[in-house]
Amino acid sequence: MLVHLKGSTVTDAIIVIECECGNTHMLDEAGDFRSERIFVYRHGVQTKNLRCCPLAPLTRENILPGQPECRERYRIIIHREQESPYLEIEHISPRPEEQILEVMSITFAKPST
Predict the structure, then answer these.
(1) Is residue 74 classed as helix, strand or coil in its secondary structure?
(2) Domains of the chain by residue range
(3) Do 84 and 107 meet the contact criterion of CB atoms below 8 Å apart?
(4) Which residues of 71-104 are buried (b: 16+ CB within 10 A; e: fewer)?
(5) In this structure, what DSSP letter does residue 110 have?
(6) Which of 17, 4, 6, 11 is nearest to 109 (CA)?
(7) pLDDT tens digit string along 75-96?
(8) What is d(CA 33, CA 35) in angstroms, rounded to the nearest whole number?
(9) What is the rounded CA–CA span in Å between residue 45 and residue 57?
(10) Least confident residue range of 31-40, 59-68, 92-101
(11) Are 77 and 92 within 8 A, CB to CB?
(12) 18, 26 in Cβ contact below 8 A?
């Protein structure tokens, strides 16, 4: 998992998660919203669950023989500490176990004085 910070302010961040398979499009499991850029608001939903979602729908014709559909999942958690709010991006195993496989953190931009 690679996480790229595309923009950050005091109140929000734009990130791109690169899956183990190389795909950067993710599906927000709460709203069936698919996007490459993930907008995270400091005062928004505390936890966001995502899964790898190729841009083109997978069909029997475009899946290589022996290559299973990617089932990687990710979770974004907002930690709202007063001094230094940050995002924790977790690579989690498929359901039902949901073990944390890898964690990366991104800090929101510091307020200008």
Answers:
(1) strand
(2) 2-59+68-107
(3) yes
(4) ebbbbbebeeeeeebebebbbbeeeeeeeeeeee
(5) P
(6) 11
(7) 999 998 767 788 999 999 887 8
(8) 7
(9) 28
(10) 59-68
(11) no
(12) no
- The answer to whether residue 113 scores a pLDDT higher than 80 is no
- C-alpha to C-alpha distance for 105 and 77, rounded to whole angstroms: 10
- Enumerate residues 6+ apart whose C-beta is below 8 A from 38: 14, 15, 16, 17, 26, 28, 48, 50, 76
Hey, what amino acid is at 59?
Answer: T
- Taking CA atoms, 91 is separated from 44, 88, 102, in Å, by 21, 10, 5
- Residue that is written with structure tokens 């964690």 in the block: 103
Instruction: Give me the amino acid identity at 36.
Output: E
Structure tokens, 81: 């500490």
